[in-house]
Amino acid sequence: MAFNQELEAITHAFSGHGVDEKSLTTILGKWNPLERELYRKNTPHFFVEDHERKFQRWNDHCVRLLKHEFVRFKNAVVLWSMHPWERDARLAKEALKKGPSSYGILIEIACTRSSEELLGARKAYHSLFDHSIEEDVASHIHGIDRKLLVALVSAYRYEGSKVKDDTAKSEAKTLSNAIKNVHKKPIVEDDEVIRILATRSKAHLQQVHKHYKEISGKNLEEDLNDLRFKETVECLCTPQVYFSKVLDASLKIDVDKNIKKSLTRVIVTRADIDMKEIKGEYNNLYGVSLQQKIEETAKGNYKDFLLTLIARGG
Amino acid sequence: MATLVTKKSSPIEDSEALQKAFKDAEALHKAFQGWGTDEKSVIEILGHRNVYQRQQIRKSYQEIYQEDILKRLESELSGDFERAVYRWMLEPADRDAVLVNVAIKDGNKGYNVIVEIVCVLSPEEVLAMRRAYQNRYKHSLEEDVAAHTTGHLRQLLVGLVGSFRYGGDEINPRLAKTEADILHESIKEKKGNYEEAIRIITTRSKTQLLATLNRYRDDHGTSITKKLLDNASDDFHKALHTAIRCINDHKKYYEKVMRSALKRVGTDEDGLTRVVVTRAEKDLKDIKELYYKRNSVHLEDEVAKEISGDYKKFLLTLLGK
């Protein structure tokens, strides 16, 4: 390989999700000091030229970022081997600590897990953090999101298929009225909306979703202008669409580090549940296979690990 | 301590226990024969069996006679006696689910019962009850409670029903002080910030809550329940009051329920049955002692005075006579 090609390969090895360990070993590993100096001089976004003292030093910020990329594989492995209950409890705790930008993860956990899985997460939370999840959510979140989030994490929904269609119809109407009156009373303050979304079974909510479309012509999540409520409805009624969107957002180069982390989270938490359906939905929405997108964006061991996870079970 | 009197039997002696259960099932079947029912035998047998033995009897009866003994009891017995025996025979989680469901349908008379049940049970027992509720009614408990209530009352009840409190012994004294102050602020005015009071009462661990309530008493000289009484006009305040009393000292609360049930013009049989049936195997003895201390008369004597018939005999049996 010509040196220029090698340079390109190393740049590639460091760009994306994870790092290409193999290239780093075979190429960077064999470069002599001169070649490595040429590398530093030709990679200004990693190395800063100190003209006065005549050497090139690592940009500290980049080193920190690189650390995240090297550790991405390890994090995925650790998360994957964890008991699902501990996994969800830790993800919830982390989301609480990170603040409002991560509250969507709380909604994701509360709404896409089965009732027993959510219960398990709550038990694990006791064990790990000596508090109940609802007590921490309630005491850490002070804004308008509190009511909805506390209600969602406390739910133990009926999991059966029995639905009273009349009730579903009337609750669709209730939601429609609440949305029409949003200028008088914001959705987040509407107790009836919270009641319906936080207590009804998923089967019931699918019916409500269907009737809402019949009444208003649009999908419920499109008409809800509050981000949390939107996420809640998406997670409860169309989880695979939700997960596909999260995956797509995370599979872009140079995204926010929290968004990047959702790639690992979604794949590890859904690999055993509905990855097949998510792959199908992803293809529908974006016209490209999830596998291909991961091939393009992820690197090295991390990439291989993700591909293995999504290939399980067909 | 429990008041139930049973022959010494441990679940480990399985084959012996099974034999006994079979004999009991046969004896009960005999009691149902003929025109009337031999209520004395029903009371004599069922009134002296613990929860494990009663479930064995149900299984045995089903096996021998291809019939659920509960259905039989429903048709053979009647009135308060029937309701008491029926509830006695249900598995505890199932029974709690039934009691809560009845309370929901009772409207504003039932709110305190819902609060009582979810506040006294351990977090695991509440969970078991929620499962049993789903099995029976094909709805989640919180969905039904929410649909039947509004406003602060709904927030409180749904919060209580949905809680899965941490069960550890740790106390954070600083937090107890902060939250005692918050509670004080929230009930000070008529239109206080109940959201915070509800948050604290429905999510903190029981141990932490006790510390907070004690701190309140230390800081303000009186327990928070006395302060709440001034405002106890609407259902929400009454329910909040009940919640705190049950968390603080549920035996004292049960003594009051018994006292009200018996002293009222027209006894509250539902309350009587509920307390006796649900606590006979737990702490009814302590409640009896509290009753005597408070009223200078024995609970059994009061029951014997106010109640009559087979219902009375059954209650007295469970009370340990």
Automatic annotation (TrEMBL), chain A:
Keyword Repeat carried by entry: yes
SMART domains: ANX (SM00335)
Protein name in the entry: Annexin D4
Any single biological process term in GO: response to cold
Keyword Zinc appears in the UniProt entry: no
Gene3D superfamilies assigned: Annexin (1.10.220.10)
Species name: Cicer arietinum
Pfam assignment, any one: Annexin
Keywords: Annexin, Calcium, Calcium/phospholipid-binding, Metal-binding, Repeat
Gene Ontology cellular-component terms listed: cytoplasm; plasma membrane
Gene Ontology MF, one: calcium-dependent phospholipid binding
